[in-house]
């Protein structure tokens, strides 16, 4: 019987069930006896399909690709593939695929809702009332504006960035987008360069993949280009933002708030300079974790796994 190796850390959360249902007894879905690189490498030569991990604890690099030359498919259950050396696997003759767009609406909704919460100081007000205060007057001293009054700049025009543009526009925001190149099709926003976008962005939304060109993209120089009181929303990857530069801007109030679902180091260290502000919303990398998004990811993953085992067309390859 063929073998599908499932690397996700949690017990069967629905992904394993979806794969088993799709392969209909044609393959056994197995997990590692222990979550170590050694255990992973021992399993790879006998696997037919490898379904990747979300945590990054079990990266699939060059050494793993060499051992997995007989693998039919490396499938990532999600959009992010920064823990997979796709080039090394392709060189070994193994396709790598992900599930693009499966969680786009979920992540975009999180970005819009988080921005709205910070624009209206809802999180701060909740904490004040929870602590026994009634900040009906003092909230007026904060920069409390309707979301519709904010100009929004979205960095990245993939499925998440596009959906963010649509949802912010639905609130009445003026929306600007930027990317390395102008999209060929229509986006519900005005396309500008990054240097043009930053001074306009009362809300800056980051929705780009982590690459060498985007690592540290929002540094101290670019933070300084934002309007005073701007809100930074990061649903990309933590390393896209210089944490220290953002923390300094929050401390000086040049940046009025930050909604962060991703961090350079996860879990977020206790010593992180991003902790301790009353104008931040810190989330444990769950923006794309809605039930609807998970169902789409499981379905797309299971579909590709079954296709690989049956020598059918594999979709969404990198």
Automatic annotation (TrEMBL):
Keyword terms, alphabetized: NAD, Oxidoreductase
Source organism, top-level taxon: Bacteria
Pfam family name, one: 2-Hacid_dh_C
Domain D-isomer specific 2-hydroxyacid dehydrogenase catalytic: 28-315
Keyword Isomerase found: no
UniProt GO cellular component terms: cytosol
Xref: PROSITE patterns: D_2_HYDROXYACID_DH_3
Domain D-isomer specific 2-hydroxyacid dehydrogenase NAD-binding: 118-287
Example GO molecular function: NAD binding
Family affiliation: Belongs to the D-isomer specific 2-hydroxyacid dehydrogenase family.
Protein name: Dehydrogenase
Species this protein is from: Rhodococcus qingshengii JCM 15477
């Amino acid at each position: 019987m063929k073998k599908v190796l499932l690397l996700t850390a949690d017990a069967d959360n629905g992904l394993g069930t979806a794969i088993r249902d799709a392969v209909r007894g044609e393959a056994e879905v197995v997990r590692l006896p222990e979550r170590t690189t050694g255990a992973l490498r021992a399993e790879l030569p006998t696997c037919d399909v490898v379904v990747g991990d979300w945590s990054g604890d079990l990266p699939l690099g060059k050494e793993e690709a060499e051992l997995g030359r007989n693998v039919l498919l490396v499938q990532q259950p999600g959009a992010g593939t920064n823990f997979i050396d796709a080039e090394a696997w392709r060189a070994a003759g193994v396709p790598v695929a992900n599930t693009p767009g499966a969680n786009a609406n979920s992540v975009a909704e999180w970005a819009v809702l988080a921005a709205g919460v910070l624009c209206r100081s809802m999180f701060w007000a909740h904490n004040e009332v929870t602590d026994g205060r009634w900040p009906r007057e003092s909230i007026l001293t904060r920069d409390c504006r309707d979301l519709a009054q904010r100009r929004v700049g979205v960095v990245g025009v993939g499925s998440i960035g596009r959906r963010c543009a649509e949802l912010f526009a639905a609130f009445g925001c003026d929306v600007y987008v930027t990317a390395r190149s102008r999209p060929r099709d229509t986006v519900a926003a005005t396309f500008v360069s990054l240097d043009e976008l930053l001074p306009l962005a009362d809300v800056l939304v980051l929705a780009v993949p982590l690459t060498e060109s985007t690592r540290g993209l929002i540094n101290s120089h670019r933070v300084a280009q934002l309007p005073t009181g701007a809100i930074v929303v990061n649903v990309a990857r933590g390393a896209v933002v210089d944490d220290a530069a953002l923390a300094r801007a929050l401390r000086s109030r040049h940046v009025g708030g930050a909604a962060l679902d991703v961090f350079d180091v996860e879990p977020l260290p206790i010593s992180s300079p991003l902790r301790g502000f009353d104008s931040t919303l810190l989330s444990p990398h769950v923006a794309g974790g809605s039930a609807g998004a998970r169902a789409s990811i499981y379905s797309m993953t299971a579909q590709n796994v079954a296709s690989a085992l049956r020598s059918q067309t594999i979709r969404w390859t990198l």
